[in-house]
Amino acid sequence: QVQLTESGGGSVQSGGSLRLSCTAPGSLFDITDMQWHRLSQEKGREMVASIDKRGNTNYLASVRGRFTISADFARKTVWLQMDNLNADDTAVYHCNMRAQTPWTTRHQDYWGQGTQVTVSL
Predict the structure, then answer these.
(1) Above 90 in pLDDT, residue 95?
(2) What's the half-sphere exposure (Cβ side, CA atoms, 13 Å) at 118?
(3) Is the terminal CB of the chain with fewer CB neighbours within 10 Å at N or C?
């Protein structure tokens, strides 16, 4: 099963910053867009930010102005810079890429294993 590799999670105090990164394996190609999602018990799954090959970005309203998504499609890598974190940002963060592999005939979504972000007061 193809899986993306995430890193950068951890524990910070409110107001702090973290930078998440996610890289796809070489078997993925023609990546069309990349996203970050988060999963928490209180809110379920939320799409935090997305970016397409043209550089168009979208953000969850509660993170706009604090989080920044960036990507290098050639290097199959996406980042999420998170500033001014608060307790509501506590969640497991997953990256997602829509892409093809040599053994698929259409684009599919691929996910990372998740990285924990914990923000304390």
Answers:
(1) yes
(2) 4
(3) N
